[in-house]
Write a structure and sequence with these properties.
Strand order of the largest sheet: 2-1-11-10-9-8
Order of helices and strands: HEEEHHHHHEEEEHHEEEEHHHHHHHH
Distance between the termini: 83 Å
CATH topology of the largest domain: Beta-lactamase
Structural class: alpha+beta
CATH architecture of the largest domain: 3-Layer(aba) Sandwich
Number of strands: 11
CATH superfamily of the largest domain: DD-peptidase/beta-lactamase superfamily
CATH class of the largest domain: Alpha Beta
Number of domains: 2
Shape: globular
Strand content: 5-15%
Largest sheet: 6 strands, antiparallel
Number of helices: 16
Length: 463
């Protein structure tokens, strides 16, 4: 596949969907086919292949590789309990002693957001040592090794293991033992999702057809989602994965056996690996090939990396917009690049976000107008109900409690829809600003109408 065709597709796609910016890396075996940037940063600068971008949960693949280096050195065994190497690791469940290093890396430790909601905790840790100490209050939702639960603290523990066994702070270990030998000089490991980094601009939230530059909500993510990289460095990373652990210059970073181990599906579910995920074509889908991949999602940045063993291609896409529940533009950009490398027709692209936001914008404006009207006419409303049974009047008012009721159950309902994943109100708002703005405003408007009408009814009763 020619670089020119990939480049033309990505440029046209970003333009047509209105994505503010994306950087792309495409490799084939040991060769870099394309690295490029499209769009702009929130500072107005054009995005290039050297622009730093938050890579979110792609960080987990790097942490897993660091652990595998220690495995190769004979200092760690994947199937030994974590407590053998990290005695400070304890959870509030006796089964915690059976959690192995492998369980951390393939997300089958039994820890989950349901039993330890780390993202919404007000007491965010300030170090990996503190992050591991906080897990003493964590329960387990399943026996270790029996169930897959995506849980960022698995990788906080893995990163703490790296710095404890490796003898260096996690960021220093990654820089010296992983990034430098891989030739990734512009990649850094930060401790939190919103930590500043040289040259890194704020990302965007997309709402009502506009791209709004906002700072990333800060939460602890060392080892799980705090890394910053570039398209150029991600190309070097993909080459390392496809070259048996050797860098583009031939330097050995990790063994071929370790790379194969990281990419191999785990026995407990077959869809996860060590710092990676596995995706098999659905039955009857002959268009796709088996993929080794991982995605990353923050509130203002998102990312994807894919390896396709049958073709030898690798694709990484870094975006300066967060993942919205109503938007698939970012995922379809990756799908299009993969389709081109496999000889398939890529999607044309064309955002549907503005349509959804337009609907909610109209609903929000209509709600405000009806609410103002309901308040102004509350006196007439109360007079018309003078002498009517109280239960009938109360029944008419109950309908106004639907939006506040939906708002009250919003967080737990979203947690369930996302498979139990934890998140803060701010993170939810960044993901669906138009929808949540409508629900919040509708709730306040309805409560205001109810309050004014109840007051008017009481006044009529006194008369």
């Amino acid at each position: 596949m020619s670089a020119a065709r990939l480049d033309a597709f990505a440029e046209r796609y970003v333009e047509r969907t209105g994505l503010p910016g994306a950087t792309v890396a495409v490799t084939e075996g040991r060769e870099t086919v394309l690295t490029a940037g499209y769009g702009r940063t929130s500072d107005g600068a054009p995005l290039t292949a050297d622009s730093p971008m938050r890579i979110a949960s792609l960080s987990k693949s790097f942490t897993a590789l660091a652990v595998m280096q220690l495995v190769e050195a004979g200092r760690v065994e994947l199937d030994r309990p974590v407590q053998r190497y990290l005695p400070e690791f304890r959870v509030a469940d006796p089964r915690g002693g059976r959690i192995t290093v492998r369980h951390l890396l393939d997300q089958s430790s039994g820890m989950s957001d349901r039993t330890f909601p780390d993202a919404s905790r007000p007491d965010q840790p300030q170090s990996l040592k503190e992050a591991v100490a906080q897990l003493r209050t964590a329960g387990l939702s399943a026996d270790p090794g029996s169930e897959w639960n995506y849980h960022n603290p698995n990788y906080h523990v893995a990163a703490r293991l790296v710095e404890k066994v490796g003898g260096l702070p996690f960021g220093s270990y990654m820089r010296r033992e992983v990034f430098a030998p891989a030739g990734m000089d512009d990649t850094v490991a930060l401790e939190s999702s919103g930590a500043p980094s040289p040259g890194l601009a704020n990302g965007f939230v997309r709402a009502y057809g506009a791209d709004i530059a906002l700072p990333e909500p800060d939460h602890f993510s060392a080892g799980s989602g705090g890394m910053v990289s570039t398209a150029e460095d991600m190309a070097r990373w993909l080459v390392l994965q496809q070259s048996g652990g050797r860098s583009a210059t031939g330097e050995r970073v990790v063994s071929a056996a370790s790379v194969a181990e990281m990419h191999a599906p785990s026995s407990h579910d077959g869809r996860s690996a060590l710092g990676w995920m596995r995706r098999e074509p659905e039955e009857g889908d002959h268009a796709r090939l088996p993929q080794t991949w991982h995605g990353g999602a923050l509130s203002t940045y998102s990312s994807y990396q894919f390896l396709v063993p049958e073709t030898g291609y690798g694709v990484a896409v870094l975006l300066n917009t967060g993942i919205a529940l109503t938007e698939e533009d970012s995922a379809r950009l990756v799908d299009g690049l993969l389709a081109l490398t496999e000889g398939r027709t890529p999607p044309e692209g064309g955002s549907s976000l503005w349509k959804v936001d337009a609907v909610f914008g109209v609903l929000t404006a209509a709600t405000v107008a009806l609410g103002v009207c309901g308040v102004l006419r509350s006196g007439d409303w109360a007079r018309r109900r003078r002498g009517r049974p109280l239960w009938r009047t109360a029944g008419r008012l109950l309908a106004y409690l639907v939006p506040p009721g939906l708002l009250a159950v919003f967080q737990p309902a979203v947690d369930i829809l996302l498979g139990g994943r934890d998140g803060t109100w701010l993170q939810r708002f960044y993901a669906i600003p138009a929808e949540l703005s409508f629900l919040v405003l509708a709730s306040f408007v309805c409560l205001g109408v109810v309050a004014v009408r109840v007051t008017a009814l009481a006044r009529e009763k006194r008369r």
